Amino acid sequence: MEKGFYKVPQAKNEPVMAYKPGSEERAAVQAQYDKMWSQQVEIPMVINGQRITTGNLERVLPPHDHQQNVGSFHMGTAQHVHDAIEASLNAKEQWENLSWSNRSAIFLKAADLVAGKYRHKINAATMIGQSKTIFQAEIDSACELADFLRFNVQYATEIYDEQPYTGSGEGLWNRVDYRPLEGFTFAITPFNFTAIAGNLTTCMAMMGNTVVWKPSLSQLYSAHVLMEIFEEAGIPPGVINMIITDPQETADIVFKHPDFAGLHFTGSTEVFKNIWQTIGNNIHTYKTYPRIVGETGGKDFIMVHKSAKAKQVATAMTRGAFEFQGQKCSAASRAYIPDNLWPAVKEHLTQQVESIKMGSPREFENFMTAVIHEGSFDKLAKYIDQAKADADAEIVLGGNYDKSKGWFVEPTVIVTTNPKYTTMETELFGPVLTVYVYPAEEYDATLTLVDETSPYALTGALFSADRYALEQGIHALRGCAGNFYVNDKPTGAVVGQQPFGGARASGTNDKAGSKQNLYRWISPRLIKETYDAPTDYTYPFMEK
Ligand code: NAD
Question: Does 129 contact ligand 1 (Cβ within 6 A)?
Fold first, then answer.
């Protein structure tokens, strides 16, 4: 493996465009959206570089207008899973032996395509297919994706450059050959971030692996654009194979295959735990111990000390809980507010939430749009109805929902007198925030409560103007979050700045967008070379 001969460009975060009224980028993305809205896309699978159609078509449903026909995707079968595995295995040798500089160039070109030529297209696909506002699409599918690609190239280069100690280098040379995993790798991605789909696949490929990728059925429009970008960037046939197949059937085939070498998963906790169990049950089938990386659910908190500033807290709650309809794994969904601050926080929160406009992402004044699908809508409606009926819960903001045109759920705030109320513990993955108002003098006990409520540990925020209280809280909440925010909302991690991942039931905490994640996709071989090998087996201590 050639390494260190070429200096890769220093990665920088892709600047976020503002899309102000009258701006060029605003007009361009709106035109792109309108074009795609009135066309019917046909989304194939891509196996071994070939576009595979089956004629078994299902419609792409824009969540904010599910009757609009924007196109459909070709549903595959078990045979396509087998074909994708075979394509990955066939492509492996040539791909892993391609020099690092040539592999890197592909991903750096992909980043430029995402940030340049394809920016409006991938943003529009994310707006239509996942109902993101332009700002949410921009920070995800354009900027975060470009960042993942560029920073990961830099991190991989740094890894290849890490070599062991060889003393003065006389007589021997120790070196490490960073091999990819042996076999094929499997990426399962969620609906909520186009960038996650782009990252989970490419970061394994970057390290020399070939990939079978099963995207979420609710992210297929932007997944299709991603495959176009990968093709134009020059990712060779068979290196990333996208299949559109039944999740359980796909899992049954992949996890029984002897060459299965690694899983890169992002999605819900229950699905991941079941997968882990399946992999464990099949362990005698595999040629190697598969790597398992999973980033899963969250029940992310905002904990507030009595010294905090009410308006800052309210703003963090509004943005943290309701941007992208609360469908971020990092979204704030439980808040602990001291009773001295609650009246002021509630007033600001009410002002903010009541001013939120909700509707189509095509109308730029909307801060929120619809939730992803009917299943999610029905689940949220059920919890909201339950809160209306429960004596220990009160809905103080929102609480309405309507699925006639799109799956719209109002930003909803529940106040509970029971800190273990179901919506303080269960991930709902929607625009529902539950607040527990605690006696301001019971900071200690409330920190313990935060720690002991819900099985998750993804993100959390602590607000305080008192440095001693911060010190205490940062320590007490050490195990509660993989990404912890002080006086800031718990969402919006930026690649290269806040590597992302959670612990406990929230995942293996392998930090997407960091070197640590890339290490999981390699299997180092240590090579010791001796220049003048001994010819006498005896040692000096044996001399007489
Ligand atoms: P999901 O678990 O429903 O689906 C995720 C992926 O798993 C999809 O591709 C789906 O088709 C697949 N899948 C579903 N059942 C499967 C099975 N039995 N076998 C194999 N694959 C299966 O999740 P979602 O609704 O797409 O995404 C939301 C979830 O993802 C939330 O729980 C959220 O917290 C989590 N998430 C976590 C992070 C993180 O970094 N921790 C980031 C984004 C999303």
Answer: no
